[in-house]
Amino acid sequence: xxxxxxxxxxxxxxxxxxxxxxxxxxxxxxxxxxxxxxxxxxxxxxxxxxxxxxxxxxxxxxxxxxxxxxxxxxxxxxxxxxxxxxxxxxxxxxxxxxxxxxxxxxxxxxxxxxxxxxxxxxxxxxxxxxxxxxxxxxxxxxxxxxxxxxxxxxxxxxxxxxxxxxxxxxxxxxxxxxxxxxxxxxxxxxxxxxxxxxxxxxxxxxxxxxxxxxxxxxxxxxxxxxxxx
Length: 229
Ligand code: FE
Known about the structure:
229 residues, alpha/beta, Metallo-beta-lactamase, Chain A, 6-stranded mixed sheet, 6 helices, binds fe (iii) ion
């Protein structure tokens, strides 16, 4: 099994390249356009055939490589059925397994950070997008974010997974790479609340600055990162 956690230093984004082995089919989760050369290097070195590029949601902080990868490799470009991105070749629905090369990825609809956010469960590993971060959670103050929806996604979906489920987030800003449901339940300060109201109050008063690429990233990502026209 290959799971490569790739990092875009400019936007602190984690991208995941997953395959059952060298010389096999692969999928990529949350790709970044500026890292295309690295992905191509790995496809060549490891002899991987990309069959699907998946985004957990429409990102506001970086431009996706979804469209570039689809044009280059002919892979499927996938996002959740709630996504307004125009360029999706296959829409993801909750619990409809994504099958590739004998592997099965289970989509879990986890709105809150955005209304099109998904997490993916695969082989005891959770690719949690921006829903669950390491010692944090994705902000809920733009892109139809909803702190109550996120509370539900976290407490009634992700945190009900087995405690040894490995957590791979879409970002980290503090140098952490991987966690578990157990660790996050115990040590994530956002998850120590007693009610949805308390969580919403916490999230609605973070007063965060807008991401630096938001104005270009959101419209570009609705086109899967491809230029206009
Ligand atoms: Fe995000």
